[in-house]
Structures are given as structure tokens and as C-alpha cells.
Amino acid sequence: ERIGAMPGVASVATRRSALALFEEQTGENMRTMTFVIVIFASIIAIGVVYNNARVSLSTRSRELASLRVLGFTRAEISRILLGEIFLQAALGVLPGLAFGRVLAEGIAAGADAESFRFPLVISSETYAFAVLVAAMSTVVSALIVRRRIDHLDLIGVLKTRGG
Questions:
Q1: Taking a C-beta distance cutoff of 8 angstroms, is the pair 64, 80 a contact?
Q2: Is 1 part of any domain?
Q3: Does residue 40 lie within any of the structural domains?
């Protein structure tokens, strides 16, 4: 207290309070950056799944239109294509989690400095959140593709000459 009362001393901080402030600010910055990264990752995931679905729809539009003309409902046609999309997404989860772990380890090793270190800790909640983001991205993409399936031009697709 006497040091803080001396002229020219703006503030006095104990090691404990300085460390607590550092941890608080670091945590806040990490949460902000994590939020931004999750937004970008979600946009990329939606784009990848949507692009994959569009390619699949484009290559199968003739077959899907033929099934529709044969009496299959829009829901049945959607289940065929969307089932494939969800299956591909489900099969990609485990390799994606493993690749994410390897990538995180590489980034942590590259950022390792002599002055400070942040240990790489990936909790089960983090993996669950990653799976949730991937699942939500797949659902959003599926909803967009479902609209395209519902508006499939049956006559136009069947008129085109395909391989």
C-alpha cells in the first residue's frame, strides 16, 4: 500500500492479480477468435457439402427425374439423395476429427515459444462441438438441396441427352 501511495506510481499489482488478469484477457481473446473461426468453418463446411450435393444432383438429375415420372414422391427422391449426403458426412466425421487433432498439434508445435507455452488440450466437449457444427452444416446444405430437388424440371431433364 505504501508503494502505491508514492508519487509517480500509477498502480501496484501482485503476481497473482497480474496472472489472473492475463488469463482473463487471454481467455476472452481465445473465445472471440474461436467464434470467428467457427463461423468461417461453418461457411466452408456448408459450401463443401452443398457443392458435393449439387454435383451429385447434377449427375443424377436424369435418374431422379425418371424415378419421379415413374411415381416416386418428392420426399422419396429427396431421401435417396439426402441420405447419400448424410452418409458421406457421417463417414467423414472420424477422419475429420483425427485430421483436426493432427493439424492442431502442428499449429501448437509451430507456435511454441521459449517465453511462454500453451498446452494443447482438446476436450471431449470440443470434439462434440465440432461434430455438431458439421451436422448443422450438413442439415443447412440438405435443406438448400431439397428445394432444388423439389423444383427439378422433369421434362427439361428428361429431354436432355445424357451419357
A1: yes
A2: no
A3: yes
3 in any annotated domain = no
Which cell numbers in the block locate residue 62?
436424369
In whole angstroms, give the CA distance from residue 70 to residue 107.
54
**CA-wise closest residue to 13 among 3, 27, 26, 24:** 3
Is 6 part of any domain?
A: no
Burial-class residue 126 by CB neighbours within 10 Å (0-12, 13-18, 19+): middle
The total number of structural domains that make up the chain? 1
CB 145 within 8 A of CB 57: yes
Global pTM?
0.71
Residue-wise pLDDT for 85-131, tens only, equals 999 999 999 999 999 999 999 988 887 677 667 788 899 999 999 99
